[in-house]
């Protein structure tokens, strides 16, 4: 069935880019195909924009900025509330579009739409709480206050794995803070972003404050990073591309927020609640077929519980159903492309060649993008999967003897995004939390992604935080006002 026929509101399937409040194609007429990873079928085409169209979006954003920043923050919040309401009213269509272009099971897509909308709701409310300070002056003739002001025209470059939430997690705080924002979604998943643009237009956003540019990344990204009118870049994606964008942004000294790659350890101590640990690893490892930046990438299990954990995990993994995300009961959809499948297979082959044992799974379905959920035992730090982010449904089990060894293994990575550990010992809970070198720690839970909590990494996993009350700071500048000459008349 065609994607358009699956939609209650076919107008949400936009095949034009949204530039300065207008729907347009590429000036040279070039287009990109959008492919369903489950079937290989082309489901839509979108414009392949370049630097010229990007400049037009930047100029439109800059022209719209003065009025947008001058609005009372409550008015910006009100418009975000309308956008939020429209997302929920069209949630099913947004989920269908996501499953069609990204592949995740429809139930997960519905969950992401709700999650994505929660950022819009959160920052619609936070817009009303952009506070400054009054600072005690060292003399009676002076008063000092701070003003929190929008940073300016902002760009958001987002990944394919969460094609809705990674956009709202950036655009909602930007807009709430008073910044116009230009989005470049992944060329694999532009349709979810364009559907959000359709809803932004319906919400009454002024022209120019929200644009979505589709196309191959180099031309659009080159302009977004080099154009001095763009004062802020927020990027979510691989550390490799993050480094590139950081270099490209250096000449114009942009404000940067980066959510990059991860290599999450998932540590299970002997005293762990086994039911909690199994539920946690299933949630953390196999969400989105393992294609999340916070997935458990290395599963470290203490000697005393190792065999029971491995047996229970294999039992749960055997229940996973691989297939088309639209099919009933499917819990593992396709990977995004052949390169992703090849990486999972390379990690499995490398690990087995270095002594790992295959407990369940082990390969992809030939000629498809479906990777079979796999558990390996006997994983070691010599294997590629220990130092590289697999980004697929592969669960390697590492054995450890004591707490210090587990922490040493966990921290032995240049990444520092998410980490997890399971124990019932309150003293160990604090010791391990404080020694793990990661931006986020899940203690007895496999989930660290909520709009109310700061999300982000340290080391080479990123800069800044998204969501929470901290997420707004990424789009604000602090201006200090000194008022002098105030000594009262003698
Ligand atoms: N930390 C997080 O919150 C988070 C979230 C999702 C994905 N990721 C990471 O992203 C990776 C997978 O996602 P991905 O494959 O989309 O990442 P990616 O880095 O390949 O692409 C991310 C975005 O950057 C764009 N891009 C690529 N090259 C570019 C260039 N030269 N100039 C401008 N834009 C460019 C892509 O088109 C896409 O929109 C994994 O490493 C994962 O850990 C991190
Ligand atoms: O890939 C990681 C994203 O940040 C998704 S989530 O926030 O963990 O859902």
Automatic annotation (TrEMBL):
Similarity comment: family membership: Belongs to the aldehyde dehydrogenase family.
InterPro entries: Ald_DH/histidinol_DH (IPR016161), Ald_DH_C (IPR016163), Ald_DH_CS_CYS (IPR016160), Ald_DH_CS_GLU (IPR029510), Ald_DH_N (IPR016162), Aldehyde_DH_dom (IPR015590), Aldehyde_DH_Superfamily (IPR050740), Succ_semiAld_DH (IPR010102)
Keyword hit for Oxidoreductase: yes
Source organism: Chelatococcus asaccharovorans
GO biological process: gamma-aminobutyric acid catabolic process
Any matching Pfam family: Aldedh
Domain Aldehyde dehydrogenase, first and last residues per copy: 26-480
Record carries keyword Phosphoprotein: no
Highest rank taxon of the organism: Bacteria
Active site location: 259
GO molecular function, one term: succinate-semialdehyde dehydrogenase (NAD+) activity
Name this protein carries in UniProt: Succinate semialdehyde dehydrogenase
UniProt keywords, alphabetically: Oxidation, Oxidoreductase, Potassium
């Amino acid at each position: 069935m065609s994607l358009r026929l699956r939609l209650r509101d076919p107008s949400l399937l936009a095949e034009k880019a949204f530039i300065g409040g207008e729907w347009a194609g590429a000036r040279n007429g070039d287009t990109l195909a959008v492919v369903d990873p489950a079937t290989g079928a082309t489901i839509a085409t979108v414009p392949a924009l370049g630097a010229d169209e990007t400049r037009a979006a930047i100029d439109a954003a800059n022209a719209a900025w003065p009025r947008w920043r001058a609005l009372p923050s409550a008015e910006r919040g009100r418009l975000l509330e309308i956008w939020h309401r429209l997302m929920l009213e069209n949630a099913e269509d947004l989920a269908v579009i996501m499953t069609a272009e990204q592949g995740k099971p429809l139930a997960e897509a519905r969950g992401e739409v709700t999650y994505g909308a929660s950022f819009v709701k959160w920052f619609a409310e936070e817009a009303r709480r952009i506070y400054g300070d009054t600072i005690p002056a060292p003399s009676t003739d002076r008063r000092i206050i701070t003003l929190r002001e929008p940073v300016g025209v902002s760009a958001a470059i987002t990944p394919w794995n969460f094609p809705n939430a990674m956009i709202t997690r950036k655009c909602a705080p930007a807009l709430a803070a008073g910044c116009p924002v230009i989005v470049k979604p992944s060329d694999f998943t532009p349709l979810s972003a364009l559907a959000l643009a359709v809803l932004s237009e319906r919400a009454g956003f002024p022209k120019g404050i929200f644009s979505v540019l589709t196309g191959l990344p180099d031309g659009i990204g080159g302009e977004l990073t080099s154009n001095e009118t763009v004062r802020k870049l927020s990027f979510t994606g691989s550390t490799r591309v993050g480094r590139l964008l950081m270099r490209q942004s250096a000449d114009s000294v942009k404000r940067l927020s980066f959510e990059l790659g991860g290599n999450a350890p998932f540590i299970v101590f002997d005293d762990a609640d086994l039911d909690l640990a199994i539920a946690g690893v299933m949630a953390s490892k196999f969400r989105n077929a393992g294609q999340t930046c916070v997935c458990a990438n290395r599963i470290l299990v203490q000697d005393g519980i190792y065999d029971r954990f491995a047996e229970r995990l294999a039992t749960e993994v055997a229940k996973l159903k691989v297939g088309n995300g639209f099919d009933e009961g499917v819990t593992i959809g396709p990977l995004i492309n052949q390169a992703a499948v090849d990486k999972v297979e390379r990690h499995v082959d490398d690990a087995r060649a270095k002594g790992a044992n295959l407990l369940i799974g082990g390969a992809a379905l030939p000629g498809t993008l479906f990777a079979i959920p796999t558990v390996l035992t006997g994983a070691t730090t010599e294997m590629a999967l220990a130092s590289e982010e697999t980004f697929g449904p592969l669960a390697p089990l590492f054995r450890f003897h004591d707490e210090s060894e587990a922490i040493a293994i966990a921290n032995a990575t240049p990444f520092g995004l998410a980490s997890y550990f399971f124990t019932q010992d309150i003293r160990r809970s604090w010791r391990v939390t404080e020694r793990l070198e990661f931006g986020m720690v899940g203690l007895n839970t496999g989930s660290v992604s909520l709009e109310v909590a700061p999300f982000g990494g340290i080391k080479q996993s990123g800069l800044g935080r998204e969501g929470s009350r901290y997420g707004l700071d990424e789009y604000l500048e602090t201006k200090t006002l000194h008022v002098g000459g105030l000594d009262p008349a003698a």
